[in-house]
Amino acid sequence: MKIIKVRTKPAYEIEIRGGLLTDLAQDLKDRGYGDRYFLITDSNVRQLMAEDLLEMLREAGLPVEILSFPAGEASKNMATVVELARKMVQAGADRRSAIVAFGGGVTGDIAGFLASIYMRGIAYIQIPTTLLAQVDSSVGGKTGVDLPEGKNLLGTFYQPRRVYIDYAVLGLLPLREIRQGLAEVVKYGMIKSQRLFKYLERHSGEIMQLEPEPLEHIIAESCRIKAWVVSKDEKEAGLRRILNFGHTLGHAFEAASAWRLPHGEAVAVGMVAAAKISEKRGLISPEITHRLENLLTSLGLPVRLALELPVSEVLTYLRSDKKARSQWPVFVLVRDIGETVFDPEVPEAMVKEVAEELGCR
Predict the structure, then answer these.
(1) Strand, helix or coil for residue 84
(2) 338 annotated to bind ligand
């Protein structure tokens, strides 16, 4: 078991342990986060594991209701939030109630956003069930929903009371789903930890087999790095932007593919793109890019685009990036594995060249 402290305001802890869901009910009773609990999940997780968790919580004597919504990014909107909020009102939820977000990133974003605005804010707990959510979206307090005009345009910074990570649940997921989270783990190595990067290089086979010890290690190290970053920059005023490594072009690839390209795979290719741009800007040697490509390949992640995306669309999305300055994003590049630099002056022609090298047309 590992405990990671997130020193935001308020501070909270991340507990990481295989099989911890079996003890969750007693822990919630001991900590007393709410008089009543509302377990929020999506339709897939409800069928796969949430009903079992609900039964365990009720058997322990916890007053708990379950609310669900259709699985998928399409549900991440205000209509879903309002529907869930109305069901909570009808069930008698008050300011002493607490929300339990049980699912992947979409569930955490919706449930966290709802918790932040329901009766001006109630307690919530995160129980992420995908590797991507465990190492990324469940840590840091970002919540939000989409608008037709773009993703995460409505949202809040609102910290959970606690995050419970049970990596045993990952065995229920398809391998491709696991890989989406591994892309984020590689990112943490690239931006902040040569040690983590080397560990991934040495243990990729065991990680792909979901061996408990290496799995716990990489989750804990990823959470530790993100916790350190968000404790220094809770509301993304500066340092937190290093977490965008691989995401600037990755998000553009996702958008240009009409979201057919999974997030982790887009980020993997986005990291290769960022490394190649770093090379062309004279920051790193080709050897570092090759190490990144080799590691991604060993984890079953792509280093080139599987879809032939129009480079003009990719550039259009980059210009409209919500973090852009003067209609062009600040790129997070690397000087070395574990050392980043912000570059607001990457030439568009260079980005176009790299995107075409990676499969854009």
Answers:
(1) helix
(2) no
Residue pLDDT, tens place only, 130-181: 999 999 999 989 999 999 877 888 999 999 999 999 999 999 999 999 999 9
Which one of 128, 157, 172 terminates a domain? 172
Place of tokens 């190490």: 291
Write out the two tokens for 183.
């892309």
Q: Which two tokens stand for residue 75?
A: 């549900």
Domain's final residue, options 142, 172, 202: 172
**pLDDT grade, residue 205 (50/70/90)?**
very high
**Annotated binding-site residue? 297:** no
Residue 248 is labelled as binding a ligand = no
Structural tokens at position 97: 């109630």
192 carries a ligand binding annotation: no
Q: Known catalytic residues?
A: 120, 142, 184, 226, 236, 240, 244, 247, 251, 263
Q: Which single residue is written with the structure tokens 């009910």?
A: 25
Q: Which domain holds residue 112?
A: 2-172
Using DSSP, state whether 325 is helix, strand or coil.
Answer: strand
- For the cut 90, the answer to whether the pLDDT of residue 236 exceeds it is no
